[in-house]
């Protein structure tokens, strides 16, 4: 009797591994990462904490799949408006972006309707007036850094003539050091490079008008005296006004999202879906690919 062999494929019992999250390739090299999507596979916490305006109740909202749990958000908010109390850092470093003042909280839902980014996904809406978040554990974030990378997915509401909007800002100790910020300048404006003697200077600056969701990356290679700015993957490289060994940051002031200070002008107006910060000169092409996944 001849022996017989059978090969059975048990496809139903197999499970396909989940694809890596957008920032998995940068694990250990990012200081803080905020998003309305899950950015790191290792992150198991909530996306953000919201406050509903109807009774000032608060709730942590997590993810449904890889995106913000819109159903849970709207079930909590109902027909009210909702604002962001905390945007959780997904790196595990605990640098959560927080705003305890109700008047200064970015909006997430307006009268029961979610705020949307330029790509149609959930987004934080900054009004350009008094909205901003402070990043916990960020004092001295850029201090003694030979390089710094800041990247964002955003939609710009408006940039008026002569105005400058600060998307990310790390306060400095002195005007005599390189400043770290991710700022937008008016359409047709120039790129701002580091100006160590200029109190209004910033080594990372991006010029872009309103439109579809934008992927913006600023990378300061301070020890090399270079600045790299990428807008939707298109890279511009130029020299710093003066090559400096490091940037500096105030050891007593928190870095901010949406404003340079707790008062004053130059505030961001538009939608924000992700912000990524690193003290390393991250590869721009790879980082832009990650931002494209977040913006999709």
From TrEMBL:
Q: Which residues form the Alpha-L-arabinofuranosidase B catalytic domain?
A: 32-105
Query: What protein am I looking at?
Result: Alpha-L-arabinofuranosidase B catalytic domain-containing protein
Organism per entry: Ancylobacter koreensis
InterPro entries, per database record: A-L-arabinofuranosidase_B_cat
